[in-house]
């Protein structure tokens, strides 16, 4: 005779509000999903955030996701967006599977591209909290911190 014991399900605390991680396909439409994700996350977790702060965080995320799609993914790849926000700052990380680091292109009025890192410098540069790149086990993470205004 086999003795059976009642199993007690593991208790998990559900996440309150929007999660801090979003997985995206490496396709152009994903930048829009990232913008919506950042807006929703900040609105829930930092309801008193100024509209300027929210828009700056959205712009930083959009630029990083767009760069990850253009230069950090191949067809079929995905990327990951992580966000943490409080009354002082919002930190956004975009993970992609390519180790090649972003680099600024020379200024050009003829090109429609190449302004993403210039925008990050303006949003997060000397007067902001900063931005950078770190290696992760399967690629890189580009991060940016936008100070609350």
Describe the fold and architecture:
This protein has helices at residues 30-45, 51-71, 116-124; strands spanning 21-25, 78-85, 89-96, 130-136, 139-147. The chain is α+β, with helices and mostly antiparallel strands and 149 residues long. The protein has one domain: Histidine kinase-like ATPase, C-terminal domain (Heat Shock Protein 90). A five-stranded antiparallel β-sheet has the order 1-2-3-5-4, with helices on one face. A hairpin with a 3-residue loop joins strand 2 (78-85) and strand 3 (89-96). Helix 1 runs antiparallel to helix 2 (51-71) and helix 2 runs antiparallel to helix 3 (116-124).
How does the major sheet shape up?
5 strands, antiparallel
Kindly report the spatial arrangement of strands forming the biggest sheet. Answer: 1-2-3-5-4
DSSP helical segment count: 3
Helix content percent band: 25-40%
Assigned CATH architecture: 2-Layer Sandwich
Name of the CATH class? Alpha Beta
Query: Domains counted in the coordinates: how many?
Result: 1
Strand content: 15-25%
What does the average pLDDT come to?
A: 84
Structural class comes to: alpha+beta
Round the Cα radius of gyration to an integer and report it. 19 Å
Apparent shape:
globular
Secondary-structure element sequence? EHHEEHEE
Oligomeric form: single chain
């Amino acid at each position: 005779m086999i003795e059976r014991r009642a199993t007690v399900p593991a208790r998990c605390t559900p996440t309150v509000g929007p999660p801090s991680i979003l997985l995206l396909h490496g396709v152009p439409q994903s930048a829009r999903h990232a913008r919506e994700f950042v807006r929703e996350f900040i609105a829930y977790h930092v309801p008193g955030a100024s509209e300027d702060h929210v828009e700056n965080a959205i712009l930083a995320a959009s630029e990083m996701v767009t760069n990850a799609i253009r230069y950090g993914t191949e067809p079929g790849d995905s990327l990951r967006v992580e966000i943490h926000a409080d009354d002082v700052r919002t930190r956004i990380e975009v993970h992609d599977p390519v180790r090649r680091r972003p680099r600024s292109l020379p200024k050009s009025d003829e090109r429609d591209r190449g302004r993403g890192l210039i925008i990050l410098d303006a949003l997060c540069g000397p007067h902001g909290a900063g931005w950078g790149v770190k290696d992760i086990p399967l690629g890189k993470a580009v991060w940016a911190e936008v100070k609350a205004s």
